[in-house]
Write a structure and sequence with these properties.
Length: 339
């Protein structure tokens, strides 16, 4: 392979705003790049992660009109989970409606969909609901949000690869979370996700915050093939209060979705692939992705004839892995108007 691509230079938005959507929510959005360029929407991970400045850099700013937004309850959207926002109306299908409302608000006829991890889940759900509004799809770190995937990462499977980090994840759950003998990783009959659901909703702020940091740290420290202690990822902040705010939103919203099987039980994403099988796409997945195993990408690619699958042989889950970044940039460049 030739020299790996690196992200486009840092760039500031030319437009920001707040979009009122149902249930008392206002979504922060921003537009970056060329106002007359090809529209693309960046769908962030989590859910609950929010958009970061580096997300703007995955597209040629001269060719693309880049739209980013913070999903309900996180980032700069209001009300924020850390301020007591209600999760009752925070569902996959309400987020799909939010994306469509944003497209209409911005006067965009159709756009490219770009998402990773949970962003791939929501991106697929949106595209299947509104295929006529999607020109291409670029996804990485495929997460289909099936029970088997939640079991793998949050109920003990991935612990066999990261037993040291799993200790931190278990530390807030109480002794009943631990099995005996060789069953340390997954106590029979114990539901880690349900227990976290209780802790994160605790009336004691200290209990909820401790659980939020344990949940968030588990994911952060397992997302890279080679973990860089100086790279805190999206949760890194020099301000402890901001780090707490991020962790509360990230953990509470993620856990809410995964406790409810991402509200996909009646509409599995693979079952809906006929609606978008004709849409050009690129799937990028790290070979050593522990958060979302690479089998997810293979299963998706098998159902999507118009998509190309690229496995990054030296990458884990994070978008910032050099080879994953390279493949994603190559994909967005390929779909530029002048390509």
């Amino acid at each position: 392979m030739s020299e790996l691509r690196t992200p486009y230079p840092a760039i500031e938005p030319y437009d920001t705003g707040m979009l009122r959507v149902p249930d008392g929510n206002e979504l922060y959005y921003e537009q970056v790049g060329n106002p007359d360029g090809k529209p693309v929407v960046f769908i962030h991970g989590g859910p609950g992660g929010g958009c970061q400045p580096e997300h703007r850099r995955m597209f040629d700013p001269n060719a693309y009109r880049i739209v980013l937004f913070d999903q309900r309850g996180c980032g700069r959207s209001t009300p924020h989970i850390a301020d007591g926002a209600d999760l009752e109306h925070n569902t996959t299908w309400n987020l799909v409606d939010d994306i469509e409302a944003l497209r209409g608000h911005l006067g965009i006829d159709a756009w490219q969909v770009f998402g990773g991890s949970w962003g791939s889940t929501l991106g697929l759900a949106y595209a299947q609901a509104h295929p006529e509004r999607v020109t291409e799809i670029v996804l990485r770190g495929i997460f289909l949000c099936r029970p088997l995937e939640i079991d793998w990462f949050y109920r003990g499977g991935a612990a066999h690869l990261f037993p040291d980090e799993w200790e931190g994840y278990l530390s807030v759950l109480g002794p009943e979370a631990r099995g005996d003998g060789l069953r340390t990783f997954s106590a029979p009959g114990f539901d880690h996700v349900a227990r976290y659901h209780e802790l994160l909703a605790s009336d004691d702020p200290a209990v909820a915050l401790e659980a939020a940091h344990a949940w968030t740290t588990w994911e952060k420290n397992t997302s890279h093939l080679v973990n860089n202690p100086d790279d805190g990822g999206d949760a890194a902040s020099a301000d402890p209060a901001e780090a707490d705010r991020f962790a509360l939103a990230f953990a509470r919203i993620e856990n809410h979705y995964f406790f409810h099987d991402a509200f996909l039980a009646d509409r599995p994403l693979l079952d809906g692939m006929d609606a978008i099988a004709h849409i050009p796409g690129v799937i990028v997945h790290g070979r050593y992705d522990v958060v979302c195993p690479v089998t997810n990408a293979f299963e998706l690619a098998a159902m999507w004839p118009a998509a190309e699958l690229h496995i990054s042989p030296e990458a884990g889950h994070a978008m910032a892995e050099p080879m994953t970044t390279h493949h994603l940039l190559t994909a967005t460049d390929r779909f530029r108007p002048d390509a």
